[in-house]
Protein backbone atom coordinates (compact mmCIF):
# COMPACT_ATOMS: atom_id res chain seq x y z
CA UNK A 1 0.00 0.00 0.00
CA UNK A 2 1.28 3.46 -0.92
CA UNK A 3 0.24 6.43 1.22
CA UNK A 4 1.07 10.11 0.81
CA UNK A 5 1.00 12.39 3.86
CA UNK A 6 0.98 16.11 3.08
CA UNK A 7 2.14 18.31 5.94
CA UNK A 8 4.68 17.23 8.55
CA UNK A 9 3.43 19.10 11.59
CA UNK A 10 2.42 17.30 14.78
CA UNK A 11 -0.53 15.50 13.17
CA UNK A 12 1.19 14.69 9.89
CA UNK A 13 4.32 13.48 11.65
CA UNK A 14 2.31 11.25 14.02
CA UNK A 15 0.35 9.74 11.12
CA UNK A 16 3.44 9.19 8.98
CA UNK A 17 5.39 7.67 11.87
CA UNK A 18 2.56 5.29 12.75
CA UNK A 19 2.01 4.19 9.16
CA UNK A 20 5.72 3.70 8.51
CA UNK A 21 5.90 1.03 11.21
CA UNK A 22 3.27 -1.07 9.46
CA UNK A 23 4.40 -3.88 7.21
CA UNK A 24 3.79 -3.46 3.46
CA UNK A 25 2.98 0.27 3.72
CA UNK A 26 5.18 2.71 1.81
CA UNK A 27 4.90 6.27 3.12
CA UNK A 28 5.82 9.46 1.29
CA UNK A 29 5.76 12.77 3.18
CA UNK A 30 5.38 16.10 1.39
CA UNK A 31 6.14 19.37 3.16
CA UNK A 32 6.94 22.83 1.81
CA UNK A 33 9.50 23.68 4.50
CA UNK A 34 12.71 21.59 4.24
CA UNK A 35 13.76 22.54 7.79
CA UNK A 36 10.92 20.42 9.19
CA UNK A 37 12.64 17.23 8.08
CA UNK A 38 15.86 18.23 9.85
CA UNK A 39 14.02 18.69 13.16
CA UNK A 40 12.01 15.48 13.38
CA UNK A 41 11.77 14.11 16.91
CA UNK A 42 12.56 10.61 15.64
CA UNK A 43 13.50 9.30 12.19
CA UNK A 44 10.71 7.91 10.02
CA UNK A 45 11.01 5.15 7.44
CA UNK A 46 9.53 7.25 4.65
CA UNK A 47 10.39 9.14 1.48
CA UNK A 48 10.57 12.91 2.07
CA UNK A 49 9.78 15.43 -0.64
CA UNK A 50 10.04 19.21 -0.36
CA UNK A 51 7.32 21.13 -2.16
CA UNK A 52 3.71 22.26 -2.36
CA UNK A 53 1.34 19.31 -1.90
CA UNK A 54 -1.17 20.88 -4.28
CA UNK A 55 1.36 21.08 -7.11
CA UNK A 56 0.78 18.50 -9.82
CA UNK A 57 4.49 17.96 -10.40
CA UNK A 58 5.19 17.44 -6.69
CA UNK A 59 2.26 15.04 -6.32
CA UNK A 60 3.42 13.09 -9.35
CA UNK A 61 6.90 12.89 -7.84
CA UNK A 62 5.31 11.59 -4.64
CA UNK A 63 3.61 8.82 -6.61
CA UNK A 64 0.04 10.10 -6.59
CA UNK A 65 -0.75 8.23 -9.81
CA UNK A 66 -0.42 4.86 -8.10
CA UNK A 67 -1.07 5.86 -4.45
CA UNK A 68 -3.79 4.14 -2.46
CA UNK A 69 -4.39 7.08 -0.13
CA UNK A 70 -3.47 10.72 0.45
CA UNK A 71 -3.86 12.34 3.88
CA UNK A 72 -3.54 16.14 3.88
CA UNK A 73 -2.85 17.67 7.31
CA UNK A 74 -1.39 21.15 6.71
CA UNK A 75 -2.56 24.22 8.66
CA UNK A 76 -4.46 25.50 5.62
CA UNK A 77 -7.95 24.08 5.02
CA UNK A 78 -7.97 25.29 1.43
CA UNK A 79 -4.58 23.73 0.72
CA UNK A 80 -5.67 20.42 2.24
CA UNK A 81 -8.79 20.36 0.10
CA UNK A 82 -6.86 21.24 -3.06
CA UNK A 83 -4.20 18.61 -2.34
CA UNK A 84 -6.82 15.88 -2.19
CA UNK A 85 -8.65 17.09 -5.29
CA UNK A 86 -5.40 17.21 -7.28
CA UNK A 87 -4.23 13.82 -6.06
CA UNK A 88 -7.53 12.15 -6.94
CA UNK A 89 -7.40 13.79 -10.36
CA UNK A 90 -3.93 12.33 -10.92
CA UNK A 91 -4.97 8.85 -9.85
CA UNK A 92 -4.85 8.42 -6.06
CA UNK A 93 -7.59 6.02 -5.00
CA UNK A 94 -8.72 7.54 -1.68
CA UNK A 95 -8.30 10.84 0.16
CA UNK A 96 -8.65 12.21 3.69
CA UNK A 97 -8.41 15.91 4.48
CA UNK A 98 -8.15 17.92 7.67
CA UNK A 99 -10.56 20.88 7.77
CA UNK A 100 -10.75 23.06 10.87
CA UNK A 101 -12.94 25.99 9.80
CA UNK A 102 -16.55 25.37 10.97
CA UNK A 103 -17.81 27.54 8.12
CA UNK A 104 -17.18 24.63 5.80
CA UNK A 105 -20.19 22.32 5.76
CA UNK A 106 -18.82 19.01 6.96
CA UNK A 107 -22.21 17.36 6.63
CA UNK A 108 -22.30 17.62 2.82
CA UNK A 109 -20.66 14.25 2.24
CA UNK A 110 -21.99 13.94 -1.31
CA UNK A 111 -20.48 17.30 -2.22
CA UNK A 112 -17.07 16.40 -0.81
CA UNK A 113 -17.10 13.07 -2.63
CA UNK A 114 -18.05 14.74 -5.89
CA UNK A 115 -14.94 16.90 -5.47
CA UNK A 116 -12.79 13.84 -4.87
CA UNK A 117 -12.56 13.88 -1.07
CA UNK A 118 -13.62 10.71 0.71
CA UNK A 119 -13.27 11.73 4.36
CA UNK A 120 -13.26 15.19 5.99
CA UNK A 121 -11.98 15.41 9.56
CA UNK A 122 -12.37 18.38 11.90
CA UNK A 123 -10.11 17.74 14.95
CA UNK A 124 -11.79 20.36 17.14
CA UNK A 125 -15.25 19.06 16.32
CA UNK A 126 -14.22 15.48 17.00
CA UNK A 127 -12.68 16.50 20.32
CA UNK A 128 -15.84 18.36 21.34
CA UNK A 129 -17.96 15.32 20.50
CA UNK A 130 -15.73 13.05 22.58
CA UNK A 131 -15.92 15.43 25.56
CA UNK A 132 -19.71 15.50 25.34
CA UNK A 133 -19.85 11.72 25.20
CA UNK A 134 -17.61 11.40 28.24
CA UNK A 135 -19.83 13.83 30.13
CA UNK A 136 -22.92 11.87 29.13
CA UNK A 137 -21.48 8.46 29.99
CA UNK A 138 -18.64 8.96 32.50
CA UNK A 139 -18.37 5.23 33.31
CA UNK A 140 -18.57 3.98 29.74
CA UNK A 141 -15.89 1.61 28.46
CA UNK A 142 -16.61 2.51 24.85
CA UNK A 143 -19.08 4.43 22.70
CA UNK A 144 -19.93 3.95 19.03
CA UNK A 145 -22.35 6.15 17.10
CA UNK A 146 -24.60 5.09 14.21
CA UNK A 147 -27.03 6.88 11.88
CA UNK A 148 -25.39 10.30 12.39
CA UNK A 149 -25.40 9.89 16.17
CA UNK A 150 -29.09 9.05 16.50
CA UNK A 151 -28.27 5.58 17.79
CA UNK A 152 -25.36 4.70 20.10
CA UNK A 153 -23.78 1.47 21.28
CA UNK A 154 -22.43 1.98 24.81
CA UNK A 155 -20.28 -0.50 26.74
CA UNK A 156 -19.83 -0.47 30.51
CA UNK A 157 -18.79 -2.75 33.36
CA UNK A 158 -21.29 -4.34 35.71
CA UNK A 159 -18.75 -3.74 38.47
CA UNK A 160 -19.40 0.01 38.13
CA UNK A 161 -22.97 -0.53 39.37
CA UNK A 162 -23.00 -3.98 40.98
CA UNK A 163 -25.95 -3.17 43.24
CA UNK A 164 -28.07 -2.58 40.14
CA UNK A 165 -27.07 -5.62 38.07
CA UNK A 166 -25.38 -8.41 40.04
CA UNK A 167 -27.57 -11.45 40.71
CA UNK A 168 -30.40 -9.97 38.64
CA UNK A 169 -31.53 -11.34 35.30
CA UNK A 170 -32.14 -9.59 32.00
CA UNK A 171 -35.93 -9.49 32.28
CA UNK A 172 -35.71 -7.69 35.64
CA UNK A 173 -33.75 -4.79 34.17
CA UNK A 174 -34.44 -4.55 30.46
CA UNK A 175 -38.02 -4.13 29.33
CA UNK A 176 -40.12 -2.20 26.83
CA UNK A 177 -40.45 0.75 29.17
CA UNK A 178 -36.78 1.74 29.08
CA UNK A 179 -36.53 1.27 25.26
CA UNK A 180 -32.97 -0.01 25.51
CA UNK A 181 -31.69 -3.08 23.67
CA UNK A 182 -29.20 -5.29 25.48
CA UNK A 183 -27.04 -6.19 22.50
CA UNK A 184 -24.34 -8.43 23.95
CA UNK A 185 -22.50 -9.40 27.13
CA UNK A 186 -18.78 -10.06 27.46
CA UNK A 187 -17.80 -12.62 30.08
CA UNK A 188 -14.34 -14.12 30.49
CA UNK A 189 -13.26 -13.14 26.96
CA UNK A 190 -16.41 -14.61 25.45
CA UNK A 191 -19.29 -12.74 23.84
CA UNK A 192 -22.73 -13.97 24.84
CA UNK A 193 -26.16 -13.21 23.43
CA UNK A 194 -28.34 -12.91 26.56
CA UNK A 195 -31.78 -14.44 27.08
CA UNK A 196 -34.41 -13.23 29.52
CA UNK A 197 -33.21 -15.49 32.37
CA UNK A 198 -29.52 -14.61 31.95
CA UNK A 199 -28.08 -13.57 35.34
CA UNK A 200 -25.47 -10.81 35.50
CA UNK A 201 -22.12 -11.32 37.23
CA UNK A 202 -19.69 -8.79 38.69
CA UNK A 203 -17.09 -9.22 35.91
CA UNK A 204 -19.52 -8.82 32.98
CA UNK A 205 -19.22 -6.06 30.40
CA UNK A 206 -22.56 -4.99 28.95
CA UNK A 207 -23.23 -3.43 25.56
CA UNK A 208 -26.51 -1.59 25.16
CA UNK A 209 -28.03 0.00 22.06
CA UNK A 210 -30.50 2.86 21.86
CA UNK A 211 -31.13 6.56 21.40
CA UNK A 212 -28.70 8.74 23.41
CA UNK A 213 -31.49 10.28 25.50
CA UNK A 214 -32.88 6.84 26.38
CA UNK A 215 -29.42 5.52 27.31
CA UNK A 216 -28.79 8.52 29.56
CA UNK A 217 -32.14 7.97 31.31
CA UNK A 218 -31.37 4.29 31.72
CA UNK A 219 -27.89 4.82 33.15
CA UNK A 220 -29.07 7.52 35.56
CA UNK A 221 -32.29 5.84 36.68
Protein described:
There is one protein chain. With 221 residues, the chain is of the alpha/beta class. It has two domains: 120 residues, 3-Layer(aba) Sandwich (Rossmann fold); 93 residues, Alpha-Beta Plaits (2-Layer Sandwich). The chain is built from nine helices and eleven strands. The strands form two sheets. Strands 3-2-1-4-5-6 form a six-stranded parallel β-sheet, with helices on both faces. Strand 7 and strand 8 form a beta hairpin.
Shape: elongated
Radius of gyration: 23 Å
> Beta-strand percentage?
15-25%
Low-confidence parts lasting 5 or more residues at pLDDT below 50?
Answer: none
CATH topology of the largest domain: Rossmann fold
- Give me the strand/helix succession: EHEHEHEHEHEHEEHHEEEH
CATH class of the largest domain: Alpha Beta
The profile of the biggest β sheet is: 6 strands, parallel
Termini Cα gap: 49 Å
Oligomer: single chain
State the total count of DSSP E strands: 11
The DSSP helix count reads 9
> CATH architecture of the largest domain, please?
3-Layer(aba) Sandwich
Helix content: 25-40%
Count of the domains? 2
CATH superfamily placement of the largest domain: NAD(P)-binding Rossmann-like Domain
Instruction: Please tell me the overall pLDDT.
Output: 84
Widest beta sheet: strand line-up? 3-2-1-4-5-6
The class by helix and strand makeup works out as alpha/beta
How would you describe this structure in keywords?
six-stranded parallel beta sheet, 11 strands, Rossmann fold, five-stranded antiparallel beta sheet, alpha/beta, 33% helix, Alpha-Beta Plaits, 221 residues
Amino acid sequence: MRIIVVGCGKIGYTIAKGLSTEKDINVTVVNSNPDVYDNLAEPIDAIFIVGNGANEKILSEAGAKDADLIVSTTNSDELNILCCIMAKHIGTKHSITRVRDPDYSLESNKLWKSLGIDVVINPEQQTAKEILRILKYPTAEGIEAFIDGRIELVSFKVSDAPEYFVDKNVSQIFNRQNKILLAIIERENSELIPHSNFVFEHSDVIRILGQPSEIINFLHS
